Structures are given as C-alpha cells and as structure tokens.
Amino acid sequence: MSKPEFTAGLNLAMKIPKAQYEATVAFYRDTLGFDVKEDDVSYAPTVSRTHSVRFGPNTLWLDCVDNYSQPDLWLQLHTDDLDAAVGKLADSGIHPCDEVEPLENLDSRTHWIKNPAGVVHLLAESG
C-alpha cells in the first residue's frame, strides 16, 4: 500500500438549523458584506437550501438542514490515493461514515469521515 498524502480542501460547510438559517445568511451577506449566492442542492438530499460564500481562498457553504437542532462545521480534505488513505485512517481507528450525507452525481471518489472529536470531513481523491 502506498503512503497517501493529505491536503486541506477549499470547501467548508456550516450545517445550520432551519430556524437560524435566514439570519445566518443575512449575517454573512448584509452584516459582513460578503458575496453570498444561493446554489443548487440536488446533490445533497439532506440539505434543503444552500448558499455559497467566498471566504478568502475558501468557499463557505451555508447549508440549511431542516432536522438539525444546532449548527455543525464540516471540513474538506484531499488525498492523492483514496484507497491508501482509507487504509491509513482505519489503522488509526477512523472509518468512512458515508451515511452522514449521501452524495449523488459527484465526479470524484469521496468518503465522509469523522475526526476523533466527531467533526465531519469530506475526504476526496484529487487527481
């Protein structure tokens, strides 16, 4: 098995309860003055609405999740070898948890994982 390389991705996702969603979008758009655009959510069946925010070199996704009671922050990682990365993570007790959010129609190989504190990461093979 090759030794995989991990790098930070450019996407951050803030999962926001429906009751706080509009105020959160307004905070980034109106209070902070960031460019906020509503985007398509057909790829993520657990997300009812999403807005993207240019957040420096990153994209912050504001995802409305109707059944959440508190916000959650999700991060993105890239690897050059997804199979080797999954093996290395398994050796550390970290296993894919793709059930957290089924993804459809993606052009890349991915898995959801959680760090030991429970923070969700999208692990995507770059290449």
Automatic annotation (TrEMBL):
Domain of life, per lineage: Bacteria
Domain VOC: 9-126
InterPro entries named in the record: Glyas_Bleomycin-R_OHBP_Dase, Glyoxalase_6, VOC_core
Classification via Gene3D superfamilies: 2,3-Dihydroxybiphenyl 1,2-Dioxygenase, domain 1
UniProt-recorded name of the protein: VOC domain-containing protein
Natural source organism: Streptosporangium canum
